[in-house]
Amino acid sequence: MIGAIADDFTGATDIAVAFRRQGLKTTIIFRLDEKTVLSDSDAVVIALKIRTIDAVDAVDRALTALHWLQARGAKQILYKYCSTFDSRPDGNIGPVVDALSRSLNARHVIFVPASPQHGRTQYMGHLFVDRTLLSESPMRHHPLTPMRQSHLPTVLSEQTEHDVALIDHRAVAQGPEHIVSLLKEFDTPGSYVLIDALDENDLRTIGSACANDVLITGAAGLAAAVGEAHARHLGKQPDYDHSNIGHELFPAVALAGSCSARTLEQIEFMKHQGHPAHLLNALETPDADLLAHRALGWYDEQTHAAGPLIYSSLPPTQLHITQQHLGTARASSILEAAMGLIASGLVDRGARRLIVAGGETSGAVVTALNIDGGVIGPEAATGVPWIRTTGTKPIDLLLKSGNFGEPDLLTKSVGKENS
Ligand SMILES: Nc1ncnc2c1ncn2[C@@H]1O[C@H](COP(=O)(O)OP(=O)(O)OP(=O)(O)O)[C@@H](O)[C@H]1O
Ligand SMILES: O=C(O)[C@@H](O)C(=O)CO
């Protein structure tokens, strides 16, 4: 069984569906419970919310997840971070991988964030988002983890004491045996190796070179490659879900806390299509309870025929003003707490389908709703699967990564009743 630990919730759904697509029976876990028994899962993904928290706490939670997976028979561990390597200079990718590699006694650890299906490629150690370098992409304005350096060996070296090497694309092009022979040079405990990848072929090459590594790290591109090799080994066929998850439960509401460029476009599109929208203004009301109370009062006045939107997302200049006045961490914690309260209030009022934009925001919502896990359904967009939650009152959830999906994704997913 492959065990994956994801540093945020939308990242967890992104790799869960990458495994599922290959035909692996995949379970997603939002809350660790010692009593959980996994029946015949080929891949298990644990969603953590540790991307931006204090590194000591992040390490602690990642190790708890590791031990939980090991106790249930995970043979290979994938640590999933963002395909744009989102992290702060003091963490969290470095400290968490340091702890996981020590605990697993890993000889070398590969780092492969490239995910061509999402337009993320790595060449000569530099990460690209579509046609631009990471540092020139909208990721430079991220509210919590602004990425202003594209050369990943430099970024990772700032987060760890371990040596960081690069296997560049010329070496990848020579095939898996060549990578295996190069990795032998790094076969001392705790050697870190970033590997370039431009397309699915490169990822397949890397996936087969690292098939026996106890610890691998990366994003959905690597998960798909490793999942494919694993499915082949198990004799499983690719699986495209045809269930009705995500298409039948009403009322539906969209919640957006992501300030990523694509989410801002999706919000504009939704408003333009006439969906009612309510902005959470933390600058004016820096109080989670009050923001939630007002948002739910507003929701109660809507007809719900066209799925409503509740959002806090702002473009970079306005975001910066809020963060300067309130402090970055305080603004996030007020808004995440408000989103959690709003989600609980919506479910109490009968909402059956929630579309949530943003990984941290998704973590806040799922945690507030006390959801243990769910079944991965069809993809509304690449890397964005519907999830039907487990438990007595299932709801359908779409946890959307900030930059994923076409501009009409929120509009299409929230839908219009009887349309
Ligand atoms: N108006 C605002 N002012 C300050 N902070 C905000 C505002 N709106 C949202 N935020 C915060 O910005 C953060 C956005 O992170 P989140 O992970 O939800 O989105 P994302 O990074 O775009 O998504 P992903 O990680 O999936 O790519 C959250 O902590 C959220 O509370
Ligand atoms: O890898 C990605 O880009 C996403 O799965 C993600 O991590 C969103 O936060």
UniProtKB/TrEMBL annotation:
Extract the Pfam families matched here.
Answer: NBD_C, SBD_N
Give the reaction(s) catalysed: 3-dehydro-L-erythronate + ATP = 3-dehydro-4-O-phospho-L-erythronate + ADP + H(+); 3-dehydro-D-erythronate + ATP = 3-dehydro-4-O-phospho-D-erythronate + ADP + H(+)
Keywords carried by this UniProt record: ATP-binding, Carbohydrate metabolism, Kinase, Nucleotide-binding, Transferase
Q: Which residue range or ranges hold the Four-carbon acid sugar kinase nucleotide binding domain? A: 253-410
For this UniProt entry, the molecular function terms from Gene Ontology, in alphabetical order, are: ATP binding; kinase activity
Q: Where is the Four-carbon acid sugar kinase N-terminal domain?
A: 2-225
Q: Give a yes or no for keyword Cell membrane in this entry.
A: no
User: What's the Enzyme Commission number for this chain?
Assistant: 2.7.1.217
Q: Name the NCBIfam families on file.
A: OxoTetrKin (NF043035)
Q: What role does it play?
A: Catalyzes the ATP-dependent phosphorylation of 3-oxo-tetronate to 3-oxo-tetronate 4-phosphate.
The family line of this record is: Belongs to the four-carbon acid sugar kinase family.
Designated name of the protein:
3-oxo-tetronate kinase
Q: Which organism is it from?
A: Rhodococcoides kyotonense
